[in-house]
Design goal:
Layout (H helix, E strand, L loop, with lengths): L1 H26 L2 H25 L6 H23 L2
Helix pairs in contact: 1-2, 2-3
């Protein structure tokens, strides 16, 4: 049951990333691009969580945090950079 929840989280973040990217392509508002990249990282994080939960052989907790950290860092950079322009 927990695997289904993790997959739904991954699909939800993927849907958010796609919708944000579509919004960016339509309006060219850069904040939408930074948010889409952030959600792409969160999607990868959730996908690795699904793999990690199904596999008892390895611990992917360190590898899981890297895409989420990179996505949030991109979003913070975009927020700071866009506030100066």
């Amino acid at each position: 049951m927990i695997h289904l929840l993790f997959m739904l989280c991954a699909l939800t973040s993927f849907a958010c990333a796609v919708l944000l990217l579509r919004g960016y392509l339509r309006t060219r508002v850069r904040l939408l691009l930074w948010s889409a990249i952030c959600f792409a990282g969160l999607t990868l994080n959730n996908a690795l969580l699904v793999v990690d939960a199904q596999s008892q052989l390895t611990d992917l907790s360190e590898w899981r945090t890297l895409p989420a950290l990179a996505g949030v860092m991109v979003l913070v950079y975009g927020l700071v950079w866009d506030s100066h322009t």
